[in-house]
Write a structure and sequence with these properties.
single chain, alpha+beta, 5-stranded antiparallel beta sheet, 14 helices, 49% helix
């Protein structure tokens, strides 16, 4: 059953932990008007719906739903990255990923599906038979795989759990992300890290790499002015070496790339991951 605009507005205000007064102040309307909108005693204009959505930081898809509930046409589309009017965005993504080699980089959608990867990431993920179009979420919530992939799988799982919950919370709840976080929470059980002393600047993920270890941390970038639904949800994750040994191993891949004359002759995974 479709919800009314007032019910949806109240739910999102509650989700963002805002009082009617706080929402009204941020949206430049009175708390009484917010109350009237939530109870259906007042009808919003299209501009008011978009203003409230901006204050609530509602995802683009949710904004369409709120507009529809208020009787207005949607404002946002979900474009495929391969569409013609996404050419400049596609070029920016490709440029960013390619320039990050030999360090791994990948683009993920809302549910952690691999949209695009650079060569280094393809080699790294090839070790677990994961390619573009595959689900990183399925790997990162598989405890058996986690324990094989990471020396510090519990630390990695705890950070992934926090990230999943944060992303789901921003979206107002997401069934797929919530199910994944539940699986991770169950795998961790009551065991929680209790680090001694001052925490490091970053907690790297330590990949098992044959006789050695690849220690990587990452940063996540998003398009700041995206008004397309899919583009607003796209995340670019750039991985960096957390120690000199990892940096040297990654830089060694430069010679592997240059010595491979064709795509068919390039290795499917890093030699030290075999």
């Amino acid at each position: 059953m479709d919800q009314s605009f007032g019910t949806m507005l109240r739910d999102w205000r509650t989700q963002r932990r805002l009082s009617q007064l706080a929402l009204g102040l941020d949206a430049n309307v009175s708390a009484r008007h917010i109350s009237f909108l939530e109870t259906g005693r007042a009808k919003p204009s299209r501009a008011m719906v978009l203003q409230l959505c901006e204050v609530l930081d509602a995802p683009r898809g949710t904004r369409n739903s709120l507009l529809n509930a208020a009787g207005f046409a949607p404002a946002y589309r979900r474009r495929d990255l391969n569409e013609a009017d996404m050419a400049q965005v596609r070029s920016a993504v490709d440029w960013t990923l390619a320039r990050h080699d030999p360090y791994p980089a990948l683009a993920l959608d809302r549910h952690w599906t691999l949209v695009k990867t650079n060569q280094s990431a393809r080699l790294l993920l090839g070790a677990i038979d994961l390619e573009e179009g595959g689900s990183l979420l399925s790997v990162m919530t598989d405890v058996e795989r986690l324990t094989v992939m990471f020396e510090n799988w519990q630390e990695v799982a705890q950070h992934m759990l926090a990230r999943l919950r944060t992303e789901s919370g921003h979206l107002g709840g997401d069934r797929i992300l919530d199910a994944a976080s539940d699986r991770l929470a169950e795998s961790l059980g009551s065991e929680q890290a209790d680090p001694a002393g001052v925490l490091p600047a970053v907690v790297p993920a330590r990949y098992r790499a044959g006789e050695g270890t690849l220690s990587l941390f990452s940063t996540i970038a998003q398009f700041g002015t995206a008004e397309d639904i899919a583009l607003a949800e796209l995340k670019i994750e750039l991985m960096f070496p957390a120690d000199d040994a990892t940096r040297r191993m990654l830089l060694a891949m430069t010679s592997v790339f240059s010595s491979s004359r064709s795509a068919s002759s390039r290795p499917r995974q890093w030699p030290w991951l075999r």
